[in-house]
Amino acid sequence: MDYLWFLIQPFRRSPELVGAWRPFDWGQKEALKERLEKFTPSNPDVTNIKILLAGQIGAGKSSFINSVLSAFQGEIVNEALADTSSSGASHSFTTRLRTHRIRSADADLPYELCDIIGLEPEKISESQIDDIVNTIYGRVKEGYEFKEKPITSDDEHYNENPSLSDQAFCLVYVIDANTIQIAADDKIITEKLRLIRRTISKNGIPQVIVMTKVDEASPLVNNDLKMVYRSKKIKEKMELCSATVGVPMSYIFPVKNYHNEIDTNEDVDVLILKAFDQIVRSADGRLRLGAYNV
């Protein structure tokens, strides 16, 4: 018995699963890119589908936007300003609502990604939740500066009568794979995300999780990005995300954002494009139902 126990320990300790737990075609980059470049919103009154990104400070919201742009343009793009400081300071580099139009090498594409202020666990207030919900419903105009209190109807950036194009049709939670855990601060963040989820779910707004920095969270994946769906650690973190935030596993996508690279990479691109494709499909599915009844 002791000898058998000794023999099976390496398999128990192995960070690698026997096979990929989620089938993934690593050669689908060009097909995904072409499909997204040819995409047309289902509602003719909407020229650009708006998607809102939310998440904790430092999770990589702005870096994800840059990575999407980079994947389409075939070169590293840094349009969305990201805080790349290693000082560990807990503050959001994004302070105003800014919308980023997604472009390919040839033309603008019918997508807009909205970058908002990062969630801060030490001063997580209801105003942050209110501003996120108001932005989803199209009540917040471009350039609004996030404050301690939520936007009010007398603010110049308040949109009293949002059109269909003003509304966001998918909420993307950007979560750092390194920080998703049952820690005090993280519980505050995930509870607020769950509250946002409950608030907007009544209107059928789809929610997707983009789990960033998977290469930092798993040495196996850091050595080979293609091992992301064979990593026990990444699978466990995705399961934890699903349980704590309440988003199904099929709507959670692990990615590596571009950070210090000077050239794009096929494997990085295909994970980014696959996540973005699901986000777009989810958003367009909700768009078919029309405006929110709020």
How would you portray this structure in words?
The structure is a single chain. This protein is an alpha/beta fold and 294 residues long. It has one domain: 3-Layer(aba) Sandwich (Rossmann fold). Helices cover 37% and strands 13% of the residues. It is built from nine helices and six strands; from the N terminus they run H-H-E-H-E-E-H-E-H-E-H-H-H-E-H. Strands 2-3-1-4-5-6 form a six-stranded mixed beta sheet, sandwiched between helices. Helix 2 packs parallel to helix 9 and helix 3 packs across helix 9 (266-287). The longest helix is centred in the C-terminal third of the chain and has 22 residues, at 266-287. The model is unreliable at 3-11 and 84-91 (pLDDT under 50).
CATH fold annotation: Rossmann fold
The strands making up the biggest β-sheet line up spatially as 2-3-1-4-5-6
State the secondary-structure class: alpha/beta
CATH-wise, what's the superfamily? P-loop containing nucleotide triphosphate hydrolases
**Any guess at the CATH architecture?**
3-Layer(aba) Sandwich
- Shape label: globular
Helix segment count?
A: 9
The share of residues in extended strands comes to 5-15%
pLDDT < 50 runs, ≥5 residues: 3-11, 84-91
Sketch the topology as an H/E string, one letter per element. HHEHEEHEHEHHHEH
Please write the CATH class name.
Alpha Beta
Q: Main sheet, how many strands, which sense, barrel?
A: 6 strands, mixed
Roughly how many Å apart are the termini? 64 Å
What is the CA-based Rg, rounded? 20 Å
The overall pLDDT, averaged over residues, is 84
What percent of residues adopt helix (DSSP H or I)?
A: 25-40%
Strand tally, please?
A: 6
